[in-house]
Amino acid sequence: MKALFNTGRTSAQGQGLEAKARPEYMEATSVCMMNPVDLMDLDLEEGERVHVRGPAGEVVLTTVLNEGVPRGTVYVPMGPYANAVIDAGTHATGMPDYKSCMVDLEATDDEVKTPADLMEAVGGVAYRGDEE
Amino acid sequence: MIHEDMICPFCGCLCDDLVIETEGTEVVRVDNACTLGSHKLMNAGTHRLKSPIMREGGAWRDARYEEAIEYAAGILLDADRPLLYGWSSTQGEAQGTGVSMAELLGGVIDSTTSVCHGPSILAIQEVGHPGCTLGQVKNRADLIVYWGCNPTEAHPRHMSRYTTYADGYFLENAFRDRKLILVDVRKTETASIADEFVQVKPGGDYAVLSALRAIVRGREDVVPPTVAGVTKEQLLRVAALCKEAKFGALFFGVGLTMSPGKYKNVRNAIELVDELSRHTKFTLTPLRGHYNVYGSNEVFTWMTGYPYAVDFSRQIAFYNPGETTAVDLMARKECDAALIVASDPGAHFPKKCLEHLASIPSVLIDPMHTMTTPLVRCQIPTAVTGMDAPGTAYRMDGVPIHVKKFMDLGYPTDTEIIGSIFEKVKEVRHP
Ligand code: SF4
């Protein structure tokens, strides 16, 4: 299924901002908010996972039902998951297309990666010095 | 201990009425803040990095401050095109030192503005900014328009301090007299209390703004029955509400700046406000996200003439968003070293940029372990401005506010760390 990919702030994402190494931040940013009808079309229940492929890459997200999201659109809180699919082109404005790329959605059983996995996938080294 | 009249260092509202209770070095209670602010204040003491850390081979180790500062100065001096990026969650004083250092290095300095309200600034540079302070809005505005933003989630106290739920000196019954129009692509919580909720098809903001301008100009005859999913009847109602208002205030968020059209959307909004001001008084204010992102624009501007994306490689200040902005520099693999200050590109930049960031020498100055931590080679923790460091911050309406310190955890401030790096740079490259 094709959909318009929209990103933005949510208060859960905002609360997690100051402690991004904590699980709350992963929970808040790895969700894909969808219209109930679209969710049904994908044959998914809320909480099951969806594979999102965009112009710059792909990512697995947990679905969340949201009546406010129009059909044919998905809303993903800003963060490392949303950015895994967004292209870096800015049309000479400095600003990437955070709100207007097209993605392909598909039901999946794959696990949602952790933020540390995502950062290692782009060449980083996870820091675990503060884990209790 | 109880600390009164404290400033919240989270979003661009910079609420200045917080009451914070501390026990030793712990925050035990925060009054008046919204959930975002109190989360930051309650937790910011606990998730701090204990000391600088450096990457060696495939692993992290603790480091001393001197060593980390030495390393930071070294990579910046060695680079041909260093990028100094971030600056939105730090003190104005640190921003100023950063600009001086970027100039001496011949580097590029950019703030998170380029990925939030950069397009708003481009529009303002084209057609001006009909703005005012939030105090004027609170006391006078009888019509509020929120466009492409969601204050309930991103600036939770904006409505209670300055608009819908605030008392107004010149309004008899502010809550009843103040109308609210919300324009967005999705139906958010704020929509339920709006007098008009205008749901625009994604990417349709420019067309809707143009239609409203036409109506305000008396040319409703050129407006088709629906514009980007909005009916002409509703557009006529919205235009009438705007014209009838005594004082209208339009606030907008990244829903306009990030959508197709980007700065042209904002330009169109400014021109609508201009048009409305021929009938009544109307103003426009971007809802700025980080508590001092506006400060980075102020400081950069009074030092260099440009608000963000300033390139000193020609030994004069050069500014060309789209070329000298951080996302573009990284995507083109142009910068060969990076100093990231008080921001988190790891969480907010497209993947391609992060791949480049991970491949170059880089230092992060940030109190916490963030998404950017795994991507850099060294991180230096500092005090959080508004908790264990005082400093200057600019509210979203451009009012500078002295942010206070209410505890001490022994960390150096951003200004001190950047100042020390700058000293090392100066030893090699004389001003
Ligand atoms: S609205 Fe913004 S400044 Fe005010 S308490 Fe909430 S986060 Fe802090």
Give an overview in words.
The complex is a heterodimer of chains A (132) and B (431). With 132 residues, chain A is α/β, with parallel strands linked by helices. Chain A has helices at residues 11-16, 23-29, 36-41, 80-83, 115-121, and strands spanning 2-8, 31-34, 49-53, 58-65, 73-77, 101-108. Chain A has a six-stranded mixed β-barrel. Chain A is globular, with a radius of gyration of 15 Å. The model of chain A has no long low-confidence stretch (mean pLDDT 89). Chain B has 431 residues and is α/β, with parallel strands linked by helices. Chain B has 17 helices and 21 strands. Chain B has helices at residues 35-43, 65-78, 92-105, 118-127, 134-140, 151-154, 158-161, 174-177, 205-216, 232-244, 254-257, 263-276, 293-304, 326-331, 345-348, 351-359, 414-428; strands at 2-6, 18-23, 26-31, 53-56, 59-62, 82-86, 108-111, 143-147, 179-184, 196-199, 226-227, 230-231, 247-252, 281-286, 310-311, 318-319, 337-341, 362-365, 378-380, 391-394, 400-403. Chain B has a nine-stranded mixed beta sheet, with helices on one face. In chain B, strands 10-9-8-13-14 form a five-stranded parallel beta sheet. A three-stranded antiparallel beta sheet of chain B has the order 1-2-3, covered by helices on one side. In chain B, a hairpin with a 2-residue loop joins strand 2 and strand 3 (26-31). In chain B, helix 3 (92-105) packs across helix 13 and helix 3 (92-105) packs parallel to helix 17. The termini of chain B are far apart. The interface between A and B is large, with 59 and 76 residues. Iron/sulfur cluster (SF4) binds at residues 8, 10-11, 13-15, 33-34, 36-37, 155-157 of chain B. Iron/sulfur cluster (SF4) binds next to helix 1 of chain B.
